[in-house]
Amino acid sequence: MVGEPFVSSHTPGVLSLDPRLKLRQSYLLGISGGRDSVALLHTLLAAGCRKLTLCHLNHQTRGLFSSDDAAFVRDLAEKNGLPFEIGRMNVPRLAEQQGHSLETAARQARHQFFAECAKRSKCSSLLLAHHGDDNAETILFNLFRGSAGLKGMRFSSKLKVDRRKLTILRPFLQILRSEIDDFAEETSMFYRDDATNFEPIATRNRLRNEAIPLLEHIMDRDPVPGILRAAAICNEQEDALEDLLEHLQLIDPQGRLFLPKLRALPETLQRRALFNYLKANKIKDLSADLLNRCLTLLDPESPAKENLPGKKFLRRRASRLFVDK
After folding, report:
1. 246 touches 223 (CB < 8 A)
2. Distances (CA, A) of 122 to 16, 116, 117, 119, 164
3. Residue 2's CB: how many other CB atoms inside 10 A?
4. Residue 37: exposure state from Cβ atoms within 10 A (0-12, 13-18, ≥19)
5. Radius of gyration of the chain (CA)
6. 63-52-176 Cα angle (round to 5)
7. Rounded CA gap, 15 and 276, in Å?
């Protein structure tokens, strides 16, 4: 589904899963005990997807409430005859030790936990309950940072933790939070509420609870579908750009950028081709300034080497550009 356009229609008492999800496959299911992940569990079971391992990490951020969340997930798994993994991590201590925000430390802890679950269960496919409103928050977050344009989540993405590779799937990405709310009410679904979701302690919380409601008030409509449609159009354009660059075959058999072809392109395509090449060579911190400096190598009169992060270099030699140590 190119660009993953946003389409949503709610049937009372039913939530739709992304049609690309293979229901007979085995999955890990990241489950907090909250409304979204519990609704995903119920929807998966109703659709006949039963090869599930429930994975819950106790972040130890809410005292006994966190322990009760873990107990709730354990009960859910046992009632449905499903295997489960319950982990514990003192995320506040981890955040203090690493100098990270609580949000960042929690995300890293979850990734590490999911990788350990994947190793034990020999299953590398992880389901998460991100929905359309979560995606809109991600799009706004990236937009305001100015680093990724209208880039949000996709149905499928890859995650590498240490040497373990996970495939993350988001079957709820094309439904709205309001639809999950309706589903929970219509089915009298039990779930756990996390009061910290309503506290202004994280950027995402403020986007969710302050910025998006303000936009709704200003525009007199729910802004989320419009944000998602704009991102879908942007994704289609990005996919077309990637297809074009692949068709141009800018990389030679030795894995180097072929300069004559690169020089013939508009600067926008040159910049994107360089970005892709450096990213494929695992160069980090790809800032606009770094790309501008690398673009100077296309001028045959410029110095033939540019410094890269990680004590590497981008070199020009024999009408080729390549990463070197």
Report:
1. no
2. 28, 10, 8, 5, 11
3. 10
4. buried
5. 23
6. 70
7. 37
- Please, are residues 12 and 184 in contact by the beta-carbon 8 Å criterion? no
Distances from the Cα of 163 to the Cαs of 44, 123, 186, 278, in angstroms? 29, 14, 43, 21
Q: Which parts of 99-223 fold into alpha helices (H)?
A: 102-121, 132-145, 177-186, 203-206, 212-219
User: E-strand spans in the chain?
Assistant: 27-30, 52-58, 84-88, 125-127, 156-161, 164-169, 257-258, 305-308, 312-317, 320-324
Tell me how crowded residue 100 is: count the other CB atoms within 10 A of its CB.
15
> Which residue from 320, 234, 240, 236 is spatially nearest to 277, judged by alpha carbons?
320
The band of 288, judged by pLDDT with boundaries at 50, 70 and 90, is: confident
Amino acid at the residue 90: N
Q: Over 90: is that where the pLDDT of 223 sits?
A: yes
Structure tokens at 314: 């981008």
Pick from 231, 298, 308, 232: nearest CA to 271: 298
| Residue found under tokens 């894995």 | 255
Q: How far apart are CA 67 and CA 74, in angstroms?
A: 11
Look up residue 141 and give its two tokens: 């977050």
- For the cut 50, the answer to whether the pLDDT of residue 1 exceeds it is no
